[in-house]
Amino acid sequence: MNIPKWLSFGHLNGFFTGLKALVSPRExxxxxxxxxxxxxxxxxxxxxxxxxxxxxxxxxxxxDSVDYTLRYHEVEKCFLDKDGKVxxxxxxxxxxxxxxxxxxxxxxxxxxxxxxxxxxDRFGRFGPYGLGYTIEEGGFGAGLDTENExxxxxxxxxxxxxxxxxxxxxxxxxxxxxxxxxFHDAIEHGEHLPSFSNEPSDLPRSPRPSSSQLTERETLPxxxxxxxxxxxxxxxxxxxxxxxxxxxxxxxxxxxxxSVHILLHVRDDHEPIWADPDTVQEILDRFVPPEFHDICxxxxxxxxRVIYPVRFGPSFRNPSGTxxxxxxxxxxxxxxxxxxxxxxxxxxxQTRIEMWERAAKYYIPAYHGSWVNFTRLVHNxxxxxxxxPIFGSVEFPxxxxxxxxxxxxxxxxxxxEPSALQPDPDPVLSRCGVGEPADLITLNPLFDPDAxxxxxxxxxxxxxxxxxxxxxxxxxxxxxRLSRRLLSVMHExxxxxxxxxxxxxxxxSVALHHxxxxxxxxxxxxxDRAWDVASVDQAFNGGRGKTTSGPGSPFGLRxxxxxxxxxxxxxSEFAGLLWRRWLGYAQVDGRVWTTEVYEDGDDGGLGGSxxxxxxxxxxxxxEESRPGSTGRMCLRSMLLHPIKWExxxxxx
Length: 652
Fold this sequence. Notes:
Oligomer: single chain
Strand content: 5-15%
Strand order of the largest sheet: 2-3-5
Number of helices: 17
Largest sheet: 3 strands, antiparallel
Low-confidence stretches: 194-214, 318-326, 592-605, 607-612
Shape: globular
Mean pLDDT: 88
């Protein structure tokens, strides 16, 4: 029996040290990754006899500053209630990092602009939204069965807000109405069109601003955050808290820069959701909490067949006999505005030169060094391989141009015009595409699925079977940002030509085919074991040309097990374990297991799952409250996926 190499590495324990071991960033020493000479003894001792004090966390621009108001329009404050008396609460963070807490091994806080010098406990993160107080007080009752020393500070400013009568749709509408002077219309600004034309065209374009307009303040775009749900989804207390947090932080606190929507898949095709308001209301009453009714849009496959009446051609190969539905099973242990805003800012600074080659590789700072070093490495590997870097649209047999492309338009911006490019553009110094928002931002690498072993690599529909399968790119986990123009091109491909691919492959492949800007944002990913750093690169960049593509891909069926102990992958076990321990619930920890009991499909001793033997219960109120304990956990911002259950009493 072949034992996965990662099972030979020891488990990391520093994640579970609590708040009383908080130290300043200068004093902080991570458990991992460090050299053998740096390795310290664990556990670290208690630093505080009591608890440190958290402070409100503010990741926003200085909206009231002179610099901001000279460039942009003023931000009007938004409220939870119609009377303007209940302000949007702040979340709280602790200044510092828990001593000994492991660092991430993949991705970077610094590169994306996330703060890594603060941490969040469960009450600072979700207490403002109803965690930690009773239903009678307007909360959810969740968290009352966990250790809560010092948690009262998060309600000192706003009190315990009564959420029983909050209508999030109305709150978002009022917020947008108060701030609509800040924003421009996406269609009027041509955001659904190519940004550069080689030839004159009759397509409408945004007028070039006059000299007087150049002195006017700038308007901003808005972004829709779409959460996919389905009839039958179990709305737990923590799921509701998570959506409340997203609306409060991204939409209301930003003065309507974002709006949050729930797209509800009605799985019964016989429900006339487009024709009968009573049916719609009945479905909402059954399957969606009342506070979210006004932000919910229903859809069904029967409805899609009306919208897309084209007869789809045969597939190259579709191994799936069922539909895959995205769920509300992702968590961001941090402030949502910081997540969305920093991803956007970072994407704008990325050059288009060798963007596909960089996006195909995991960034491992402890192995690759700085982002500049990583960029140079990708450049050298690409040149040495003899491959020609992808630039602009990709030609292949059977490719059909969009209507816009047929008129001579391109999605390349002016900074990428031939006259603006050097003969051999430097990917570090090139300005091609810099300042341009990305059409696609993914949270895992954009890999070539061909011969990768990924189960859906040939799930391509509607393209001629007598021609080679089109070139493709894929990013696992259906969490991404898509521009209006990418969505428009995808719609045209489907509506006009009957083209479709597996959900995690279609957006990236359309961007590849038509030359849109696509980036993989290297967010911080943690592992539960002390991997040798070189082994991380071998496992996660073990595909063709030391990337995630082709044979040896970490996304192939034979290699996906390497993700079991990470914090971000669709079948990760560690993500759920870490989340539930952070929430304050004891978990079955299988670290007494050895490699001798490993079986294919096992979780490698991660524990946390129910009905799984071979472990002991760790964490929870007993461990966090006992004398000498360091208290409840406090973690830095991180993405966690999947979260299939939270409270011990939740059904899976």
